[in-house]
Amino acid sequence: MKALVVILTFLTSLFFSGVKAQDQPSPIIFIYDASGSMWGQIDGKTKMEIASQVLSETIEELPDQQAIGLVAYGHRNKTDCRDVEFVVATQQGSKSQVNTALGNIKPLGKTPLAYSAELVIGKLRESKEKATVILVTDGIESCDGDLCKVVQSAKAEGIDFKMHIVGFGLKEEETAPLICAAKAGDGQYYDADNAEGLSEVLQEVTKETVDKPDGNFTVSAYKNGIPVDALARAYKAGTKELVSMARTYRDTGSMYLVPGIYDLEVTPLEDSDVMPLLVAGLESKANETVHQTISFDGAKFLVMAKNNEEGWDTMVKIFPTGSKKASSGGRTYGREDTYELNSGMYDIELTALVIKGPQIFHRIDSVQIGAGETKKIAHTFQSGEAKIGVVSGEELVDAVVKVTDPGTKKVEASSRTYTAPNNNPRSFILTPGTYEISVMSLGKHAGYSETFSLEVKAGETVEKILSIK
C-alpha cells in the first residue's frame, strides 16, 4: 500500500509539473528604440517618456508567470550601428527588472533595426525556444540593414517566433519595410501617434503571442472593387470588450478568435469619409476558418452651390439625420464637390461665404442615399450689391458703415470706407431685402452720423453716396 501511495504521488507530481510547463507562456521580447530621435516630442512630452511609461504600464498588466526580455538599441553610442544590448534576459527577466531598465535608458544613437532582430533571433536559435518579439520604433533603419530580409531568412530557417512592429509617430511613406517585416514574422504592423494609441496597440500585441493558435478568422476590405487597407477590431458580441485586431494592408488580415459570437468593426485607413462598418453577430468556429469581406462602397453626394447662377464658395456640413455631429464636410470653392459616406439618411447644411445677410444658410433635411448611389445636391443663393460712400466736396471721408437687419436688429455686416477710391464707396454683397444702414464719420470729419433704409435686389447694384460738409 505504501509503495502504491509513493507511486501515485510521484505520478501526480509529474502530471502537475507537466501541466505547469505546458501552461508556461513563451517569452515576450521587447526591442526598444533608444535612438536619438526619441527625444522628439508629442503633445509636450518626449517620445522616450511616453514610450517608457506606456511600456511599463503594459508590462505591469502581464501575467506574473510571463517571461519578459528587453533589448535596447542606440542607447550607449551615438554612431555605433552595433549598439544593441540584451538589457534584460528572458531567463531572469521580471516586471520590476524590465521597468527599472526602461527608466535608466537614455536615447542617443542610431536605429539598427535589422541588427537588433538578428541579435534576438540568434538567441532563439541557441535556446531553441519560441518567443513573441515586439519591436517599437519611431524611425526607419539607419544602418543599411534589411529587417524584412532578416525576418524572412529566420522563418525559412525554421526559427519559431512571431514579430509585431509598432511604428511610433512614423509617416505613412516610411512604413513599407516595417509592414514587410511584420508580415514575414507572422505578426502585424501597428501605427501609434500618441500615448493613448501606443497604449492601445501594446495592450493588443501582448495578447497576440506566438502561443496563440494560427488565425481562424480572416478579413478583407474593398472599395469600388479595389482592395483597401483597413483595420478590423473584433469585440465580444454586444460589448466594447476588444478581443483581437487585424490589418488588411490591401490584402487579407488574420486573427484568432476562440469559438463564439463577435461583433466586427472595420475602419478604412485610406482617404475616405466612410465611417467604420460594424458587422454584428459573426460566429467563429472550431477547426474552421471563417472569412468576412467588407465593402466600403460608399454613397456619394455631389454638392454644387451657386449665387445668382454663378458657382459660389460655400461651406458644407453633412449630418446623419437626427445627429448633431457631422459625418463629413468641406468647402466647394465655387465648384462641384464630392462627399463620400456610408449609405443612410442625412441632413445637409450649406453656408454661403462672402455674402452677408439673413439668407446665407440653407438646409436640406432627410436625404436618403444607398450604397454605391450618387446623388446631386444643388442650391442657388441670391445676392445683390450695396455700395455705400461718404464724401465732403471732392474729398473722400473715412466712416464706419453698419448694415442691420431691421427685423432681428442683427448687424449683418460692418466695415469702413477709408479715404481710398478702392474702398469708398464700400461694397457689401447682401442677400435680397431691406436693410438699415448706419454711417458714422471718422477723422477730421468726425461727428457726422446718419441712418437710412436701403433695398437690395437680387442681381442688382444699388449705390448710396452721402455728402457731408
Automatic annotation (TrEMBL):
Q: Signal: present as a keyword of the record? A: yes
Per UniProt, the keywords (alphabetical) are: Signal
Give the Gene3D superfamilies listed for this entry: von Willebrand factor, type A domain (3.40.50.410)
Q: Which domain of life is it from?
A: Bacteria
Q: Which residues form a coiled coil?
A: none
Signal peptide, first to last residue:
1-21
Q: Which SUPFAM superfamilies match?
A: vWA-like
Matching entries from Pfam families are given as: VWA (PF00092)
VWFA domain mapped to chain residues: 27-205
Q: Does the keyword Signal apply?
A: yes
Q: Which InterPro entries match?
A: VWF_A, vWFA_dom_sf
**Which residues span the membrane?**
none
| The protein's name in its UniProt record | VWA domain-containing protein
Q: Which organism is it from?
A: Echinicola arenosa
State the taxonomy lineage: Bacteria, Pseudomonadati, Bacteroidota, Cytophagia, Cytophagales
